[in-house]
Predict the 3D structure of the following.
Amino acid sequence: MSSSPSPSELTLRRQLIATCRELERRGLNQGTSGNVSVRLSANPDDGFLLTPTALAYDVMQPEDIVHMRLDGSHSGPRPPSSEWRFHLDIMRARPDAHAIIHTHSAYSTSLACLRRGIPAFHYLIALFGGNSIRCSDYATYGTQELSNHVLQALTDRTAALMGNHGLIVLGPNLERALAMTVEAETLAMMYWRAIQVGEPVILPDDEIARVRAKIATYGSYGAEKHGTGL
């Protein structure tokens, strides 16, 4: 790091690394696949922290984490993830996104390779903002074109599949983003299994709207602090 981080920033860097290692422990990423970012503070001008490119999570140290600013500049001894563009564009466009997790998890990626989003086959799809988790078009990794596709798929949503690529999830903090990444991959697994037998019954939009309303008043302790709580 170019200068010593504050205690709060150092804690956040360690939490980011812990999140990456938990993703690997759960089998949601492997080796150097995927990437994670988190805002430094509620002030957008402070920018965000992002995992570096081509560095395995099990050897990553706090000083390896890249500090990115919303003007696209960055600091630190390592270059940022090759996917820094969509992290930057999401942080600019979505003030509700304080943490972003991108994985190559097996079931989500399998559906993404089919260009098949996840419809409302299960009521918990409502956790992600609507009646589906959309699948974006494909573009080469690290390009502005991919970032544009991802932003479009994330309109009014907090998760999307990335065509022939993987999964992306937004959250208000790293803990919540991790919990929702697990939930999205679980839904992808259940949907993938269901379509091996046939086409599942899709819940109507008005039911998803009712579920979303119930989630909004469910109770922040269970939902925000310990995953879905549902």
